[in-house]
Amino acid sequence: MINVLYVEDELSLAMIVEDSLIAHGFNVTHRNNGQEALASYSNKKPDVIVLDIMMPLMDGFSLAKEIRKKDNATPIIFLTAMTQTEDVVNGFHLGGNDYVRKPFKIEELIVRIEAAVKKQAKPAVGQKYEIGNYTLDTLKCTISFDGELEKISFRESELLKKLFEGKDRVIPREEIIKAYWNDDNYFTGRSLDVFISRIRKFLAKDERIKITNIRGVGYMLTVE
Fold first, then answer.
1. Start and end of every Response regulatory domain (predicted)?
2. Which one of 24, 91, 113, 201 has the fewest beta carbons within 10 angstroms of its own beta carbon?
3. Could you tell me where the beta strands, DSSP code E, fall in the chain?
4. Integer Cα distance of 152 and 67 in angstroms
5. What does DSSP assign to residue 124?
6. What distance in Å separates the CA atoms of residue 129 and residue 112, rounded to the nearest whole number?
């Protein structure tokens, strides 16, 4: 049985979602604000966390940030009406594994919960990649340069890994989106551009590393 920590302050919606998940065999702990959810998480770690963003006392972004300070493994699914590009990017940057927009169908949420838990259950395989003068550690989600270590998000780590593994060839935008964000309706091309810009900043100290945007096609990483 999958243990779900569900955080939602709209009680009528929360009741419907909680009852539906229970009916489909999930064990659900509902909390209606971020502070209560953090206390619940600390008391008993769930298999997956489903949370709204706009909540009293502590919003969903702040809650995710607090959880990710000590836990990079438990899947976090944002379930929210906040669907601007900046919100989506921020959600993934803070360590979110998925981002579902309201309104939604309960069947979709169930599939995404099951997929997130199944993926997390696979043993983590960490690898280190030498990218120019940088070292990317995909298990710890860190990038280092000349002894300086910087923490990056899981999505940033995986995206940089994919770009490097496809070094010197163009990787189509659609391939990247479908590989890491499931559905381009939820993660727009502009959001991907924002992530690429962040990665370029991480790599800015080594001028030999280039991430080129092939307009209308995709991206290519090169090391001169």
1. 3-117
2. 201
3. 3-7, 27-31, 48-51, 76-80, 98-101, 128-131, 134-137, 142-145, 148-151, 171-172, 209-214, 218-223
4. 15
5. P
6. 30
Measured distance between the N- and C-terminal CA atoms of the chain, rounded to whole angstroms: 51
Mean of pLDDT over the chain: 89
Contact 186, 101 (CB under 8 A): yes
> Which domains does the chain carry?
3-121 (3.40.50.2300), 128-223 (1.10.10.10)
Half-sphere exposure of residue 140, counting CA atoms within 13 Å on the CB side? 11
pLDDT of residue 183: 54
Q: Are 74 and 49 in contact (CB under 8 A)?
A: yes
How many CB atoms are located within 10 Å of the residue 19 CB?
Answer: 12
CA 127 to chain centre: 19
Residues in the chain: 224
| Distances in whole angstroms, Cα of residue 101 to Cα of each of 40, 53, 89, 108, 133 | 24, 11, 13, 11, 39
pLDDT digit string, tens, across residues 144-181 = 999 899 988 888 888 999 999 999 999 998 888 777 66
Q: Which two tokens stand for residue 86?
A: 């900046």
